[in-house]
Design brief:
The chain is mainly alpha-helical. Helix content is 72%, strand content 0%.
Length: 256
């Protein structure tokens, strides 16, 4: 299979994965099943016909509105489908038909789902975190990524560090300083990226959260969707983790 064909096929697979991801993001935070009921208009309850469920195409056919009641459909549907298609195509373009393309595509898709769920509801479903950690450990058996031992160590480190921060914050502030979803999310990140990835994720996520959302939280009192910034940090760690570590070590060594 040529590189162009493989990338195009990966994009199609990613778009379909993105369609399912939308269902997960809308249903899992509320504890609802992704199997039933079938997709339907949130305005009038009309079931979505099979051809209207085709990723990207269905939204265009409907022109972004319910065919019966005309209520506007969320633009999240096509955007997430397109973004996931780009993720999977990008992984195959980068890695070719290699197990790392599957690992990277799945990991970045989970991060996208976590980001959307956390921003919408301040809930990170266990299906993304606990299920994702299990997937990361299983995929560590495949060649090209972190070893199974490193994945297990990373999962324990990620969970332990965030659990420690949450426990300390509760003692200092006498209230929950961090959600359990964030703690379990870092176990998932560690399972995919190992110990070094955990540290880069925490550093990058905390920095991004402070710079981007810190001023907003200070002025408005809104809770910080920390899962979003941890996801950003994990994306940085996956894409440029080794470069970040080398840069940091260079800065440290230059001080001595």
């Amino acid at each position: 299979m040529s590189g162009t064909v493989a990338t195009g096929f990966a994009a199609l697979v990613g778009v379909c994965v993105g369609s399912f991801l939308n269902v997960c993001v809308f249903r899992w935070p509320g504890g609802d099943s992704v199997r039933e009921p079938a997709s339907r208009c949130l305005g009038c309850g009309t079931p979505v016909r099979w051809f209207e469920n085709i990723p990207l195409v269905g939204y265009l056919l409907l022109r972004g509105r319910c065919a019966r009641c005309g209520v506007r459909l969320s633009v999240q549907y096509p955007l997430v489908e397109a973004a996931t298609g780009l993720i999977w195509a990008g992984m195959v373009h980068r890695w070719g038909m290699h197990p790392e393309a599957l690992r990277g595509g799945l990991f970045l898709t989970i991060l996208l789902g976590i980001s959307l769920a956390d921003v919408r509801t301040y809930i990170i479903p266990d299906q993304f975190t606990v299920g994702g950690a299990g997937a990361g450990l299983v995929l560590a058996i495949l060649p090209g990524g972190v070893s199974l031992a490193e994945a297990a160590t990373g999962a324990l480190l990620g969970f332990g560090l965030l659990w420690g921060v949450a426990a300390l914050g509760k003692i200092l502030f006498r209230r929950d300083a961090m959600g359990g979803g964030d703690v379990k999310m870092m176990a998932m990140v560690g399972a995919f990226l190992g110990s070094g990835g955990v540290l880069v994720t925490l550093f990058s996520g905390a920095l991004a959260g402070s710079v981007i959302f810190g001023p907003v939280a200070y002025r408005t009192g809104k809770l910080v969707p920390f899962g979003l910034f941890l996801a950003l940090g994990a994306g940085v760690a996956y894409s440029w983790g080794e470069e970040v570590i080398r840069w940091y070590m260079g800065v440290v060594m230059s001080l001595y």
